[in-house]
């Protein structure tokens, strides 16, 4: 199982410090979800974990080795990231998109092999996208399109899957469709998943490990039952709320009351 962690991590855009001296240890084989208000640095952390943003200070470790010292192909064999708004060539089919995920495992002029085809077919089956394999991305619904991108990430055959707000721009039914797919990938295939989510109740429902961020620092992390409190909601999101038990799965459920007076 591939491991991912960070020590004394500080991140900046230019002179603007976003994240200040945090430590992270992503639980193996679990779903970790990063939450926090807009602009707190959630996506910045995810980008740095995928080596898309180099730290101002500190070190990110992938399999115990500094990620900055590993080649791009080496990282791509261990870790796949799905950004917020991925772009693909015009008129590309789902199956063609998936084959891009095989690039980290191939030489410069390598052709598709029977093994590549089998891996793509397995990924399409896992995401329930087999019947859409020959459709172009622009002919798909929002939820189907997101499943196509997740299929491509699966084809990389990495233990780690990072997703930046995978439910953004989707209606509620498609949000649940994507989250249920990710939970199934975690439980059935043992993938370690790290994602950023905006919806607090979905985060509490689908996370094994919650990481709450405020003002560039980790406020609290751990199981949803210990992290998801009205004190955390007030301090991180500046909201007064009640926390009740979800009657379906007993996860914590946030009922907003109004803005906190301590703004």
Describe this structure in words.
The structure is a single chain. The mean pLDDT is 92. The longest helix is centred in the last third of the chain and has 18 residues, at 172-189. Strands 6-7-8-3-9-10 form a six-stranded mixed sheet, with helices on both faces. Strands 2-1-4-5 form a four-stranded antiparallel sheet, covered by helices on one side. Strands 11-12 form a two-stranded antiparallel sheet. The protein is 32% helix and 29% strand. With 263 residues, the protein is of the alpha/beta class.
Topology diagram in text:
Elements lengths: L3 E10 L2 E10 L5 E6 L5 H8 L7 E6 L2 E2 L5 H5 L2 E4 L11 H7 L13 H13 L15 H14 L4 E5 L7 H18 L2 E5 L3 H7 L2 E6 L2 E6 L1 H4 L2 H8 L1 E7 L6 E8 L4
Helix pairs in contact: 3-5, 4-5, 5-6
Membrane topology: Peripheral membrane protein
GO molecular function, one term: ATP binding
Keywords: ATP-binding, Cell membrane, Ion transport, Iron, Iron transport, Membrane, Nucleotide-binding, Transport
Task: Considering the chains and any ligands shown, give keywords for the structure.
263 residues; alpha/beta; Rossmann fold; six-stranded mixed sheet; membrane; ABC_transporter-like_ATP-bd; iron transport; ion transport
CATH superfamily of the largest domain: P-loop containing nucleotide triphosphate hydrolases
Q: Biggest sheet: strands, sense, closure?
A: 6 strands, mixed
Number of strands: 12
The CATH architecture of the largest domain can be given as 3-Layer(aba) Sandwich
Keywords: ATP-binding, Cell membrane, Ion transport, Iron, Iron transport, Membrane, Nucleotide-binding, Transport
GO molecular function: ATP binding; ATP hydrolysis activity
Membrane topology: Peripheral membrane protein
Pfam family, one: ABC_tran
């Amino acid at each position: 199982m591939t491991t991912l962690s960070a020590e004394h991590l500080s991140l900046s855009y230019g002179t603007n410090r976003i994240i200040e001296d945090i430590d992270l240890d992503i639980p193996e084989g679990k779903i970790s979800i990063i939450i926090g208000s807009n602009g707190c640095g959630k996506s910045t952390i995810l980008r740095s974990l995928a080596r898309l943003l180099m730290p101002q200070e500190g070190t990110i470790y992938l399999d115990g080795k500094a990620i900055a010292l590993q080649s791009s192909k080496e990282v791509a064999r261990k870790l796949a990231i799905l950004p917020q708004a991925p772009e693909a060539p015009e008129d590309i089919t789902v199956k063609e998109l998936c084959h891009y995920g095989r690039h980290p495992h191939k030489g410069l002029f390598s052709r598709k092999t029977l093994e590549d085809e089998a891996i793509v077919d397995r990924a399409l089956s896992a995401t329930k996208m087999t019947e859409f394999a020959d459709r172009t991305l622009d002919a798909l619904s929002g939820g189907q399109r997101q499943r196509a991108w997740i299929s491509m990430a699966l084809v990389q055959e990495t233990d780690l899957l990072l997703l930046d707000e995978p439910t953004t721009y989707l209606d509620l039914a498609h949000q649940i469709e994507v989250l249920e797919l990710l939970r199934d990938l975690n439980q059935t295939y043992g993938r370690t998943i790290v994602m950023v989510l905006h919806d607090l109740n979905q985060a509490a429902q689908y996370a094994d490990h919650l990481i709450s961020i405020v003002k560039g620092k980790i406020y609290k992390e751990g199981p949803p039952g210990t992290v998801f409190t009205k004190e955390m909601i007030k301090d991180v999101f500046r909201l007064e709320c009640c926390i009740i038990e979800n009657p379906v799965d007993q996860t914590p459920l946030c009922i907003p009351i109004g803005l906190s007076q301590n703004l």
